[in-house]
């Protein structure tokens, strides 16, 4: 007896964390012959003329890698005011806006970067990623496809292209893209997890199970994949295995409310009333709505048990 909640498809933060490291270490700076219009830069923070654009960029990188996103944004903006051609600063400014959920601002930076350097595969990828966040999957498909054409081994672009196709319910194309992502990078746990969700949505539970098993094998700390694996076990009527997977998801992420709910439901299926009551007690504080739903199931189960006796 499982709830109707489907597993979540996307954990894009993981992908973004990978690419910000790439941009910090690998992007090249364009020649000074390519110049931005400086309009709008008057709104950027005031400059310290003693510090170069490259120094501001390096300072922003250090701040970003320590999660100090607001300060990183200020440093990148200062670098760009001094030199609008600083590709790394503009790209990482877009990343910083993305990490703060400021997707429109991020998109604006990546668009400027593509205007300056249309052959920049990562800029096309990052704009496509932001379009996914903005619920614009059609635009995401276009940008991510362009990124792949420019850099065919960019596995993160295949991963997000699969997500974009899935949002559009173009499942065969989504599966093909995610399989390519995991072929290019066999260690991409997120790709296997995303592929598993699509198989789950299509009712292909054994294939979904294999994908989630692969995901948690590669990334044993991936709570979401254990949660999704638990849901698949429930669909396959494998209650004990479901309980183990859901319990592991909770060990990794103690406030995972859906995992607590599904584990409570699973305990009812296993006639473990005490276990269900424990999950209800936890949910009552974490999510009163889900707690109330589980309590209703618990009461109904008790009535059925008494009636059967």
Number of discrete helical segments = 16
State the helical fraction: over 70%
What about the largest sheet?
Answer: none
Instruction: Give me the strand/helix succession.
Output: HHHHHHHHHHHHHHHH
CATH C-level name of the largest domain: Mainly Alpha
Query: Shape from CA axes?
Result: elongated
CA-based gyration radius: 23 Å
CATH level-4 homologous superfamily of the largest domain: Tetratricopeptide repeat domain
Number of self-contained structural domains? 2
The share of residues in extended strands comes to under 5%
Mean pLDDT: 85
Assembly type of the shown chains? single chain
By DSSP, the count of extended strands is 0
CATH topology category name of the largest domain:
Serine Threonine Protein Phosphatase 5, Tetratricopeptide repeat
CATH architecture of the largest domain: Alpha Horseshoe
Span between termini: 21 Å
Counting helices, strands and paired strands, the structural category is: mainly alpha
The low-pLDDT segments are: 1-44, 305-309
Write up what this structure looks like.
The chain is an all-alpha fold and 309 residues long. It has two domains: 12-185, Tetratricopeptide repeat domain (Serine Threonine Protein Phosphatase 5, Tetratricopeptide repeat, Alpha Horseshoe), CATH 1.25.40.10; 254-309. The chain has 16 helices and no strands. The protein has helices spanning 12-26, 53-65, 69-82, 87-99, 103-116, 121-133, 137-150, 155-167, 171-184, 189-201, 205-218, 223-235, 239-252, 257-269, 273-286, 288-308. Helix 13 runs antiparallel to helix 14 and helix 14 packs parallel to helix 16. The protein is elongated and about 70 Å long. Mean pLDDT is 85; it is low at 1-44 and 305-309.
């Amino acid at each position: 007896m499982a709830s109707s909640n489907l597993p979540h498809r996307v954990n894009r933060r993981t992908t973004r964390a990978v690419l910000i490291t790439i941009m910090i270490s690998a992007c090249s700076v364009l020649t000074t012959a390519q110049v931005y219009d400086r309009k709008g830069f008057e709104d950027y923070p005031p400059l310290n003329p003693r510090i170069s654009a490259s120094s501001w960029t390096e300072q922003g990188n250090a701040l970003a890698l320590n999660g100090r996103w607001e300060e990183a944004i200020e440093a990148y903006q200062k670098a760009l005011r001094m030199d609008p051609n600083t590709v790394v600063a503009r790209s990482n400014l877009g990343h910083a806006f993305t990490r703060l959920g400021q997707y429109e601002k991020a998109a604006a930076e990546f668009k400027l970067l593509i205007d300056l350097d249309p052959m920049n595969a990562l800029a096309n990828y990052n704009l496509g990623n932001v379009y996914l966040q903005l619920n614009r999957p059609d635009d995401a498909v276009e940008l991510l496809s362009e990124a792949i054409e420019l850099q065919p081994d960019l596995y993160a672009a295949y991963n997000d292209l699969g997500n974009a196709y899935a949002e559009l319910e173009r499942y065969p194309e989504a599966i093909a893209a995610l399989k390519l992502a995991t072929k290019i990078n066999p260690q991409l746990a997120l790709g296997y997890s995303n592929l598993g969700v699509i198989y789950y949505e299509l009712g292909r539970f054994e294939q979904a199970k294999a994908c989630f098993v692969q995901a948690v094998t590669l990334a044993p700390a991936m709570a979401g994949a254990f949660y999704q694996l638990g849901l698949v076990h429930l669909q396959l009527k494998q209650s004990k295995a479901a309980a183990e997977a859901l319990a592991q998801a909770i060990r990794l992420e103690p406030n995972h409310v859906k995992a607590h709910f599904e584990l409570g439901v699973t305990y009812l299926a296993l006639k473990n009333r005490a276990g269900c009551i424990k999950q209800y007690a936890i949910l009552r504080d974490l999510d009163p709505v889900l707690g109330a739903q589980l309590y209703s199931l618990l009461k109904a189960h008790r009535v059925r048990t008494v009636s059967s006796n």
